[in-house]
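<instruction>
Derive structure tokens from the sequence

<record> Sequence and structure tokens follow
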Amino acid sequence: MEQNSNAEKQARYRKKEKLRRQADNILRKWRGEPWKHHLKSVEELQHLIDAAIKLPYAWTEEDYLDAKNRLCHVYSEVVSPVNHITNDVNESRDAHNAFSSAADPSKFNSDLMKAVENTNALASHIISALKISGCSEADQASALMEAMRFVGRTLTNSHKVPCSQATAMCLATISPIYGRPDWFYEKISYTISQQHPEIAYKISNNLNKYTGKCHAKS
């Protein structure tokens, strides 16, 4: 019995070590591709990796498979990263069209790069604050939602609200008493549609269900 127990412990140890080696390989691959380093800091990537492979005490095979799947998600962000911040900053400024009509294209590009740099820095500060807050992930989400509501309400004070997926998401969090720009409805629908088709389909069905209930009450 004790021999079997030792063999099982060794097998579990080897599986955890294999998971750690896979995680280390992801970090090594990322370090070897410096052109991707502006998308994440090494601290952020390490945090994502550590959270992905963390196993509970007395973990099961299901826990182990979940950790492997989470690590695959991190890997996909490293191999095929999307620079969401740059995309959102460019979109909110309508950068493509604005550049073609800019009186000083060089200054326009310089200002745009500075805006992306500042936005990345702000995002890093927010992420750092979340990590040291001691709040659970659910409570962190609540704090971020309040920040989004703050930005959303502030956006409504603008004469012309910049159009982007990011601003649409902020506007979606605030009370219906606030007005929305005409582009909001199409933009928020487009943002949702960019999810996996099955997710977008389920969201659409639930929207129809809840809006149907609202109409019935009125």
Remarks:
- The mean pLDDT is 85.
- Residues 143 and 198 are 28 Å apart (CA to CA).
- Residues 2-31 form the longest helix (30 residues).
